Amino acid sequence: MHRFWALLKILLINYFGISIFQMKTSKNRKPYFKKIGLVLLIIVALAPTIALYVKLLVRGFDALAPLGQEGAILTLGIVLVSFIVFLFGIFYIINFFYFADDAQSLLALPLSGYQVLGARFSVVLVNEYLSALPFLLPPLLVYGIKSGASVLYWLYALVGFALVPLLPLGLATIPTVIIMRFANLSRRKDLLKILGGLVVIVLAVGYQFLFQKSGPNAMDTAYLQHLLTDRSGLMNLMSRVFPSTRYLGLALINADQLSGLVNLLVFAGLSLLVVALAWLTGDKLYFKGLVGSTETTVKRKKLSEADYRRAGKGLPPLLSYWAKEMRLLFRTPTYFINSVMTNLLVPVLLTIPFFIQGRNQETTMPWEKLLSEPRGQTIIMAIIVGGIVFIIGSNAVTATSISREGRELYVSKYIPLSYRKQILAKLLSGYLLGMSGAVLMIIAARVLMPLDNYLIAMLVGVTLVAVIPVVEAGLLIDLYNPKLNWENEQQAFKQNFNVIFSMLLAILLGGGIIYIVIRYIHTPVQAALFILLGFGLAALFLYYFLMTWGVRRCHELEG
Amino acid sequence: MIEICRVSKSYNRGQVKAVDDVSLTVQGGEIFGFLGPNGAGKTTLIKMITGILNADRGSIKINGRDIKDSPLEAKMQFGFVPDDPNIFSRLTGIEYLNFMADVYQVSSEIRVERIQKLLERFEMSTAAADLIQSYSHGMKQKIVVIGALLHNPPVWILDEPMTGLDPRSSYDLKEMMREHADAGKTVFFSTHVLEVAEKVCDRLAIINKGRMIFCGSLEEIRTHARENRSLENLFLELTENA
C-alpha cells in the first residue's frame, strides 16, 4: 500500500503542476500567483452561469414542493454529475492512462497493475471532484437550506458528494481498459486507440439511450399521472440514466429515517463494487494494454523514384506549413481526441437517440410546429449557430496552436516563413476543422428536424463567417500566454488554461447569439444579417489585431 | 559570411548575462568552431544568429542581411542544425524533408535529386518513409542535417552536430563541412569536443560565461599560450582563468 500512496503523491504533484513545497521555497513566486489568479478569474467568469443554475434550482424547488417532488432537484444534480463524470472520465482515462508519456516509464517500476491503475484512477477522481463541484454543490445546498434539512442530511450530502463520481468513473474505466487491451494488439496502435475511444463513447451513450427507451413512454397519460403524484416519480424518471443515483436521492430526502441510511449504504455498496470491478479488470488488462503501446511500426522500405517524385511535388510555404499542422493534429492521439473528436462527438451524440428510437411522430412533432413559422425558425437557427460557435471554441484548435509547438517553437522562428503566414496557416487549420464540425452539426440538425433547404443554405452561409472570429480569438488567447513548457503532449491540452478561456469565450459568444436573436429578432433573414454583420466586423477587427499585435508577439516569443 | 557586432543577451531582467558584448566575423570558405564549456553561451549566441532569440543589443548579419531588419532574407541564407533533433516526430522523414524544401522554396526537380542523394549519403534511404518517432537519436540528427542542406545554403550553422552520430556518419558530416567550406561557403558550428574542433576548424573562438575570451586560428591560440601543448590544456587554462 505504501507504494500506492507514494505513486499517487507523485502523480498528483505532476498532474496539477503544483508542489506546495516548491511554492514555499521558490524565490520567484510569480508563476504561482499567476496560476491562482487564473483560477480566480475562471471562477468569476463562471459565476453568472452558476447563479443562473441556482436560480433555476430554487424555482424548481418552489414549483415541485406543492407536489411533494422537490427531491427531484437533487436527482437532477446527481444524474447530471454522473453523466458529466462518465463522459469526461472516458476522455481523462484514455489520455491519462494510455497517452501520458510517463505511463511507459512506470512500467519499469516494481508496481502491480492495480496499484498503477488505482493511483491514476484516483488522480482522475480528484479532477472529477473539481468538475462535479459546480454542478452538485448548488442542488445539495438549495435543497438542504430550503427544506431546513437536519444535520444528518448534511452528513449524507457530504458522503454522497464523495461517492457520486465513483460509479460513473468506474463504469467508464471498464470498457476503456478492455478496448484498449485489444487496440494495443494492432500494428497501427495510435489509430486504433483513437477509434477505440470513439467506440467506447458511442457504445456508452447508445446504451444510456437504450436504457431510457426500455422504460415506459413519458407521453403515456397514466405514467404521467404516476410521475406527478408519486413522491419520487420524477426522481425515478431522471435516475433511469444512472439507476443507482436513485438510492442517493432517496437517502438524502429520507435522511432522518432508517430508510435513508439503508439507501445510502446501498448506494455506497454499488459505487464501491463498480470501482472494485474496474480495478480488478485493470489489474488483469491495464499493463497488457500499455506494454509496447508506444512502439511504432517500421517499414524500412526503400522509396522508389516514383515515390520521391510524388512526395516532392511541392507546396507553397504557407500551405506546406498548414499541411504540417494538420498532420500533427491528426496523428497525435491527444490532439486528435481533444480537438478533432470534439467536432465529431457532439453531432454524433445528438443523433444517437434518433437512430435508436427512429423518427416517430413524437420526436418530430414539436420541431415541425416550431419550424412552421418564422419565429421558430429564427430560434432554431440561433440555437444551431450558437451550438456551432460553442463546439469550435471547445475544440481549441487555434487556442492551443502555439502551445502545441512546445519546445519545437524555435523551428517556427528560424525557418524563412513570415509570422504573418504562420498565423494564417494556423487560422486555416482552425477554420477548416471548425467548418467540418459546423457542417456535421448542420447535418445532425437536419437528421433530427425537418429543416428546409432555404434555412440550411442560410445556416451554412452564416456559419462560414461566424467561425472566423472564434478561431481568431482562440489564436489571440494562445499568443498572449502560450503554454510552451510541457513534457508530454497531453499537458499542452489538459493543463492549459487557454483551452478553458477559449471555451468560456465560446459560451459567451454562443450564448450571446442565442440570447440576442431569441430576444430581439423575429425572422431568420434578420438573424442571419445580424450574425453576419456582427461576426463579420469582429472577424475584421481581430484579423487586424492578429496581423499587428499578433505578429509582434510571435517575434517576442522565445520558447 | 556571418558578422556579429557587439551582441549581448541577458536573462532574468539583466541579472544573468548569457552573452556579453560578443563581436565576431566568419568569412566564406572557412569552418569556424565555437568552443566553450556547458552553459558558456554557445547555444544562446547561435539562437540569436538564427533569429530564435532576440538580441538585447548589437547586430547580426548573415551574408549582409540583418537578422533583425530583414529576417526572411537573412534566414534564407543559412541552413540550421539544432542541438536537439527531436522535432516533428509524427511526420515521416520524407514528409519532413519536403516540408523543409517547401519552406526554403526548393523546386521540385532539384529537391527530388538532392533528397535522394543526401539520404543515400547518410544511409537513410530505407528509413525515409517511416515516422521520425521510430528513428534512433543519430538517425534524427541525420534527417535534420539533410533538411538543413536541401536549399544548398551559403551559410551552414550547426549546434553540437556530432552528438549521437555513429563514427561513420560523424566522419561523413566532417567531410561535408569541409566540402561546403571549400566551395566558398561558411560553416559555423559549436562543439565541446576539442578533438573535433582541432581536426576540422580553420578558425575558432572560445567563449566562457558569455564573454568571448579568444578568437583566432589554432596556431594563433597556441602562440597566445606561448607554448605548444594540447588544445585541451589550453582550453582548460583559458576557461579556468577567465
UniProtKB/TrEMBL annotation, chain B:
It holds the Pfam family ABC_tran. SMART domains: AAA. GO terms for molecular function: ATP binding; ATP hydrolysis activity. It comes from the Bacteria. Keywords: ATP-binding, Nucleotide-binding, Transport. The keyword Nucleotide-binding applies. The keyword Hydrolase does not apply. Residues 2-234 form the ABC transporter domain. This is ABC transporter ATP-binding protein.
